[in-house]
Design brief:
single chain; alpha/beta; Rossmann fold; 2 domains; 6-stranded parallel β-sheet; 4-stranded antiparallel β-sheet
């Protein structure tokens, strides 16, 4: 037991459960920290006996955890603002630990980096880069390797931009894909040929009718997004 590495995961959700399972498979001792009683009870029900319920906004409570320098710290709170606050607090008295934070948007990513996170796993970036096979962060990749592959509600879908689509004529950077609950992976710009262009290349092409885009998301969200594209959404 002494030779095992420890990982402190703040926040319990489907996402952090996948991360926990991956780390346990790599012989880590995983400790789940939650401030939400229901999420804490869910963690216990799922077999995570090393779960602790505390107020993560209280520094004294965090200090009592006795996190050692060699331990991993993963901030995965569902509340974006709480995740940033927690990262900032942990960075102040765990300065020698590597803090890994989970982000769901470019705005949260910037805040988490400013708060002191050593690595920020942006779900958008991870999805695009894993497909492109250029994601050169082995730790981040390992943490999230099961997130998409084990979640059968998540898949890829191809969309053709129609003339009546609200995307026709818009630039990629002007489209808020998060609004629809999907992640833009890449596209085929018919003006440039049939080559697939990945989002990881920081494209900002203008979308035209006939172009093809690939998105990832939950099956229901992808179906609703298709209705918006086709102009059939209510």
């Amino acid at each position: 037991m002494k030779n095992k590495k420890r990982a402190w995961i703040f926040g319990y959700s489907k996402q952090s459960k996948a991360i926990s399972n991956s780390l346990i498979a790599d012989n880590f001792i995983v400790i789940i920290i939650e401030s939400n009683k229901k999420h804490f009870e869910d963690a216990l029900a799922d077999g995570y006996i090393n779960s602790i319920l505390i107020d993560v906004t209280e520094d004294l409570e965090l200090e009592k955890l006795a996190i050692e320098e060699k331990d991993w710290i993963i901030c995965a709170m569902e509340d974006e603002h709480l995740n940033v606050f927690l990262t900032l607090s942990l960075h102040s008295f765990c300065a020698k630990n590597e803090i890994i934070a989970i982000s769901h948007s470019i705005y949260a990513t910037k805040k988490l980096k400013m708060a002191g996170a050593d690595r920020v796993i942006d779900i958008y970036e991870v999805s695009a880069n894993r497909v492109h096979n250029i994601f050169e962060k082995p730790i981040a990749t390992k943490l999230l390797e099961n997130f998409i592959s084990t979640n059968h509600e998540i898949s890829f879908k191809e969309f053709v931009i129609a003339k009546k689509s609200f995307l026709d004529g818009k630039a990629i950077e002007d489209v808020d894909f998060d609004k629809f609950g999907v992640i833009f992976i890449g596209m085929v710009d018919k003006e440039l040929g049939d080559e697939f262009i990945f989002a990881a290349t920081n494209i900002n092409h203008k979308l035209d009718s006939g172009d093809i885009i690939i998105c990832i998301g939950k099956d229901n969200d992808l179906l609703r997004f298709k209705d918006y594209l086709d102009g059939d959404a209510v």
